Amino acid sequence: MVNMAVFIDLNISYTADTKKLQNIIETAAHLGYSTVAINHVVDLQQKKQEIGKPKCVSELFDRLPIVQGKSRPIKVLNRLTVVVSEASHFRTTNEVKSYDIVAVFPKTEKLFHAACMSFDVDIICIAVTEKQPFYFKRPPVNGAIDRGVFFEISYVAAIKDSTLRRYTISNALSLMETCKGKNVIVSSGAEKPLELRGPYDITNLGLLFGLSEGDAKAAVSTNCRAVLLHGETRKTALGIIHTVKTQPTAERQEEEEEAVPAVKRAKRETL
Amino acid sequence: MVRYKSRYLLCELCVSDQSSLQLLDERAVFAAVRGAVSSAHGDYGSALCSASFAVKYLNAHTGVVFLRCRKSHYRVLWSALPFITSVESRGQRVPCFFNCLHIGGTIRTCQKFLIRYNTQQLHRMLRLCHSEAERLEVRKAVLSCSLKSLEKEEEAEDGYGDEEV
C-alpha cells in the first residue's frame, strides 16, 4: 500500500487504563494513522476539575507500534479540550501551554464567537451529541478561518447510535453551509479500539458530512497537519523564534535560538 | 461488447479477538452490510445497492472480505460501512469494524493488492517474533505453503494463509 498522504487522528479519548490506551494506539497504527493525539477533556463546570499536566507519552510504550505501510513508529501527542460554558473558564496558563494541541468546546453562541475571534486555541469542537443550540454565523467562522483555527467533527457518536448520527450529520451540514468545507477536521474521539475507522473510510464519511472529496481528504490529513503546526506556534514567539531551555550547567551562549529565514517568516506570519 | 461495471471493495474485518473471526460466514456479512445500508440510507439507498450486491469472498483467518456492487452507487455502500459495529453470526454477536483497504474495478486488481498487503502484514508480524528460531519456523512454514497443507499452517501463524488464493 502506498500511502501518499499522512493521516492523522487528533482525538483519542484518554483513559486511565493504560492497556486500553495502548490497544487503541496499536489499532490506529494498524489502520495507517501516523500521528494520534490523546485527548484530555476538562469540564470546569463539573465539580472541582482542574487542568493537570499532560501524562508523559513515553511511559505508555516501550516501543511504539510501526505505522501501516511506513517504517516509522507512530507519533503520540497530548491534547487538551476545555469545555467552556462561561468565559472565565478558558485562560492560557502554563499547564495549558504544556499540551501540544488545545481545543475548546463552546457551549453558547457568545462563547463560540469569542473562541473563533480571540481564544488562543487550535481547534473548536462542534457538538455531536445534541442538536446545535445556535446557528453558525458567517463573521466568527470567517474570523476563525483567517486565524487558522480549525473546526472539529468527531465521528464516534455517529457510529454508536442512530439518533446521535442524525445530530452529527445535521450539525456538520449546518457548519459546512457557513464554512464551505474550509478548515474542518474529522477525528475519531474513540474510547475503544473498535470505534476507530480507517482513514479512507473517514474520507468517504466526509461526503455524508457535506465535504467535497478533496476537502474530505484534507480533513484527515493536511488540515490536521496545519493544526499541529498551529499548536507549535504557541510554544514559539509567533512561530519565528524558538527557545530551548538548556541545562543550567551549560554555557549561556549555547541557549539555542533558531531564527527562521525571512521567506519562511513571511509565510508563518500569515498563519 | 458492453458489460455491467462493478466495483469491488476489499475490506478487512478488524476484531479485538482473532479467534472470533472463525464464526463469520458470508451470509452474516451480507446481512450486516445490508442492514447498515438500510439504516444509513433508508429504502432508497438499499434499493440502489441491492443491484448485484454480493459478498464474493470471505477469509475467516485474516478477516478479508470482497464486496461487489454496481460502479454507479458504490459510494452509497461504502459510506454505510463505517456504521457497522458488529456482525451477527450463528446466534452470536461479533463486535468488529470494516476497514476498507482497496477499491478495484476487477477482482484481479484487488487480488494483486491483497497479495502485496498480506506480504506487508507478514513483515510487520515478523518483527514481533521473539527469537531467531521462531522467525525461521515462520519462514519454513511460508515456504512449505501449499493448498494441501493449509490445515497445518493455520496452527503455525495466521496472516499469510491466503497468499496463494
TrEMBL record, chain A:
It is found in: Nucleus, Nucleolus. It comes from the Eukaryota. PROSITE patterns: RIBOSOMAL_S2_1. Its main location: nucleus. One of its GO terms (cellular component) is ribosome. Keywords: Acetylation, Nucleus, Phosphoprotein, rRNA processing, tRNA processing. Residues 246-271 are annotated as: Disordered. GO terms for molecular function: RNA binding; structural constituent of ribosome. One of its GO terms (biological process) is tRNA processing. Belongs to the eukaryotic/archaeal RNase P protein component 3 family. Component of ribonuclease P, a ribonucleoprotein complex that generates mature tRNA molecules by cleaving their 5'-ends. Also a component of the MRP ribonuclease complex, which cleaves pre-rRNA sequences. Component of nuclear RNase P and RNase MRP ribonucleoproteins. RNase P consists of a catalytic RNA moiety and about 10 protein subunits; POP1, POP4, POP5, POP7, RPP14, RPP21, RPP25, RPP30, RPP38 and RPP40. Within the RNase P complex, POP1, POP7 and RPP25 form the 'finger' subcomplex, POP5, RPP14, RPP40 and homodimeric RPP30 form the 'palm' subcomplex, and RPP21, POP4 and RPP38 form the 'wrist' subcomplex. All subunits of the RNase P complex interact with the catalytic RNA. Several subunits of RNase P are also part of the RNase MRP complex. This is Ribonuclease P protein subunit p30.
UniProtKB/TrEMBL annotation, chain B:
GO terms for biological process: rRNA processing; tRNA 5'-leader removal. Signal peptide: none annotated. InterPro entries: Pop5/Rpp14/Rnp2-like, RNase_P/MRP_POP5, Rnp2-like_sf. Belongs to the eukaryotic/archaeal RNase P protein component 2 family. One of its GO terms (molecular function) is ribonuclease P RNA binding. Pfam families: RNase_P_Rpp14 (PF01900). This is Ribonuclease P/MRP protein subunit POP5. Keywords: Nucleus, rRNA processing, tRNA processing. It is found in: Nucleus, Nucleolus. Its main location: nucleus. Component of nuclear RNase P and RNase MRP ribonucleoproteins. RNase P consists of a catalytic RNA moiety and 10 different protein chains; POP1, POP4, POP5, POP7, RPP14, RPP21, RPP25, RPP30, RPP38 and RPP40. Within the RNase P complex, POP1, POP7 and RPP25 form the 'finger' subcomplex, POP5, RPP14, RPP40 and homodimeric RPP30 form the 'palm' subcomplex, and RPP21, POP4 and RPP38 form the 'wrist' subcomplex. All subunits of the RNase P complex interact with the catalytic RNA. Several subunits of RNase P are also part of the RNase MRP complex. Component of ribonuclease P, a protein complex that generates mature tRNA molecules by cleaving their 5'-ends. Also a component of the MRP ribonuclease complex, which cleaves pre-rRNA sequences. GO terms for cellular component: multimeric ribonuclease P complex; nucleolus. The keyword tRNA processing applies.
